[in-house]
Amino acid sequence: MPTPSPEIQAFATGFPITLLHAAVTVLILLAAAALYILLTPHKEITLIREGNTAAALSLGGVLVGLSLPLAVSLKASTTLVEIGLWGAATVVVQLLIFRLVDLMLRGLPRRIQEGEMSAATMLVGAKLATAVIISAAVAG
Q1: Among 41, 47, 62, 127, which is least packed, fewest CB within 10 Å?
Q2: Where are the domains of the chain?
Q3: Which pLDDT score is estimated for 94?
Q4: Burial class (CB in 10 A: 0-12, 13-18, 19+), 79
Q5: What integer pLDDT is reported at residue 4 of this predicted model?
Q6: How far is CA 90 from CA 7, 72, 73, 114, 134, in A?
């Protein structure tokens, strides 16, 4: 049997590691999203199930906002320990900033509960802006 090419060998070695790193990062994202949902004053999942588009937009923005720094952390990391450390650090910073944004933009949770799209759009914009800044900080 011929020896596989170096490219095939590299892929066979690297692909399982890639899947593992991605899986760990997705688990961090899911845990962070669950924590965010627990910390919000309104029940976004319930609101989304009831058809509240503002709540869906808000939660979607949170997911993208959390994933941006996690993606940069994944790119900057080479081991599972690094992924875990950088991932946890970016999530903690993001959740703190998200909370500050929620506090600064008073009344937004109530307005989102009421389905106000302008409030949800402002909240998403603020959260994505902070995600981009944190991503750049992690990237160095």
Answers
A1: 41
A2: 29-139
A3: 84
A4: exposed
A5: 82
A6: 34, 10, 8, 31, 7
Residue type, 61: G
Tokens, residue 76:
């900057």
Q: Measured between alpha carbons, how far is 56 from 49 in angstroms, rounded to an integer? A: 9
Cα–Cα distance, 77 to 74 (Å, whole number):
5
Name all contacts of 28-31 with Cβ < 8 Å and 24+ positions apart: 28/70, 28/83, 28/84, 28/87, 28/88, 28/91, 29/63, 29/66, 29/67, 29/70, 31/91
pLDDT means over runs of 10, the chain (140 residues): 84 90 95 90 89 95 93 89 90 84 79 91 89 89
